[in-house]
Each structure stands twice: as structure tokens, then as C-alpha cells.
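PROTEIN DATA CARD
Card holder: Efflux RND transporter permease subunit
Chain length: 361
Origin: Hymenobacter humi
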Amino acid sequence: MNIDRVRANREGISTAQIGSEVRTAIYGAEASKFKTADDEYPIQVRYAEPYRSDIDAIVNAPLTFRDATGAVRQIPIGSVADVTYGTTYGGIKRKDVKRVITISSNVLNGFTGPDVVANIQQALKAFPTPAGYTIKMGGAQENQKETSDFLPLAGLGALALIFLILVTQFNSFSKPVIILTEVIFSVIGVMLGLAITGMNISIVMTGVGIIALAGIVVKNGILLVEFTDMLRAQGMPLREAIILAGRTRLNPVILTATAAILGLIPLAIGLNIDFYELFNSGNPHFFIGGESVVFWGPLAWTIIFGLSFATIITLVVVPVMYLLSETLKGKITGKNPDHVATLSEEVDSEEIHAASPRVLV
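Structure generated from the sequence above:
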């Protein structure tokens, strides 16, 4: 509706009054509320269906106003406005002070969001974008991009904190590095598992699973390294200490990894049991799958693949790296790696050195 501003100003009518009258005719205005004991409902007053769908009826609707003399007058809307037909938008939406038009759609069964986004981005390359306009993906794709940008920082932060704690615990630089190599093994295991099974990578849940693995798999390395240090502190040679530590910690490492893997299997396959009906009627409504497995499945399988591969590799690679590290350290410092002085030995040696007479030549 195009308002004749000169005529409306002469009559003392504002554009807001005209717009309000048209909106009331089509959409209605709240006249009162109908209250019940539990709730209240607004009462909307508007034109009946035949009239609010008729352009002529709306244009000829009376516009009631008070003129400059204070008298109440009525004139038809058509006397201060006319109607033209065209294509436009029902409203203007903005984001970051820029006008935006949002096109959205659901994803049909048999397709995934990333696959659809990839096809859209491929089609947009051949789409002639006018000057001054930009096209970008929003919604779930935008949130996924923000999450994928944040996950590497979170992973590096987690590794830095783990490394700092291990350095303070072992008072060494090489041993935390040996332990943190398990994180690399776990990532390799995740990629191998996904490649062999043909599963799709979920940027968010797979990334969260890899970060969670960083805190899980280092536990096995800590068990091996710490127990080896304890045996060496008791006077056992380096190679024998490594062999005994691996043999002794074999069962705890395998049992803890197996328990974690078996505990994640129901989450990975979407095992569902209705315990209420199981105890009430004896029918557990047992089934596998469902909507939960779509969300939690990638996280569970990521931890399962990474933990399985890292556990097997840890039992072989960590002792070998420990042996090579201590051997190389002994060659550099000139100390025998098979001998690690205990606290009592250090104290005794200091006392003997202090008590021995000094001879000057």
C-alpha cells in the first residue's frame, strides 16, 4: 500500500495509523482476554474471512481519526492510499547490521548434513553471486565449524596440562614424552578403525572422543613407567626392571582397557532396555539402534578404536622407548643406566664423604 503522504498530512493522519488499521483488518487486534482457572487466552478482533481476503474491502474500510479541530471523522483508507501489486518480503531481518535472507531445509532419510552441505557448496561455485552480496552457511554447519575450530585448541590445552602434570610427577622430560606418545597411537587407532569399518567421521563427537582418549590412554603408560622406576629404585637392572614391570602390569592394563571397551559397547550400538517394563511385566522391549546411537555412536566408537589400538601398542612400544631413552641418557651423562641411587644410598654416601679425612698433596 502506497500512502499519499501529502493528503494524509492534510487530514492529520499519520502513516502509523493507516498501517495499524490495515494490520488490524488482516491480522486482528487484541480486544481483551478470556480467563479460565488455569490459563488466559487473548481475544483477537479482525475482519471475517471473506473481507480480510478482499483487497477492495480493506481499501474501502473506514479510517476513524480526530482532525485538527478535535472532531471525530471517518474516511476510507483508499482516499489516502492506493494498492499496487508486486513481489517483496514480509519483513527485514538483520544479522551483524546486514540484511539477511535465510534458506533452510530438513535432511531426508538416507542423507547426512555434511553430504548435503558439500553438494550445496559445489552448486554455489557455479551460482552467479551479485556484487555486494555474500553467501555463507549457517545453522548446524556454522555451529559445527565453530566447534571444529575450537576442538584443536582444546586438544592442545589438554595435552599441555597432562604434560605439565607428568613433568611434576616424574621430575623428568623424557618420560612424559614417552607416555604422551600413546595419544598418537590412539589417534592412529581411531583412523584405522573408521577406515576399516567405513564409518563416517563426526567432527564434533569424534573430536571430543579423541580429546577424551588423551586422558584415558596415558594411564597405561603411567602404570608401566612408574612401576619400572620403583623397581630400578630398589636396585634392579634396567632391562630386568622393564621386563618385570611389563609382566606385572600386563593384567591391570588389559583388564582396565577391556572393562572400558565393554562398557562403551551398549552406547556404541544403541542398546535399549526398558527396565520399568522389565520389572513390571517382564518385557524389557529390548532393541538395538534408535536416535541415541546417531549422536553418541561416533563418540563411543572413537574411544573403543583408539583405546584398543593404543593398549596393544603401549605394551610393546612404551617399554622399548623407555629402554632406548634411559640407554641414550646414560651414554650422554656417562652414568650406568642399570644403577639408580636411592635416597638412603645418597645420604650414606654424603655422610661417608663428610667423615673421610682430606689429604692435600
